[in-house]
Protein: non-specific serine/threonine protein kinase
Organism: Castor canadensis
Amino acid sequence: MSARTPLPTVNERDTENVSDCSPHPRGRVYSRQNIPRSRNSMTSATDEQPHIGNYRLQKTIGKGNFAKVKLARHVLTGREVAVKIIDKTQLNPTSLQKVFN
């Protein structure tokens, strides 16, 4: 059994200009275009799904004025969670109050 490293976070452009919810341990944000890969790595359909940390993003289960809620599944445990993704371009002082109150 080999040790696996955490998946890098998605780039904001890849999730419709939204904020990341779980930063990469080194503080870097990657997109599919700039993820370091080995030459002989094989990709599958699940590798191409967007992800944040160790969570693969699945379907949208809710949508509001400045955020979406997506169903996500933990890569290692399979546990399902809801992840709120906030569109920073839609935030203004009024909507910020809604987020933090």
Q: What stands out?
A: The longest strand covers residues 55-63. Residues 11-43 have pLDDT under 50 and may be disordered.
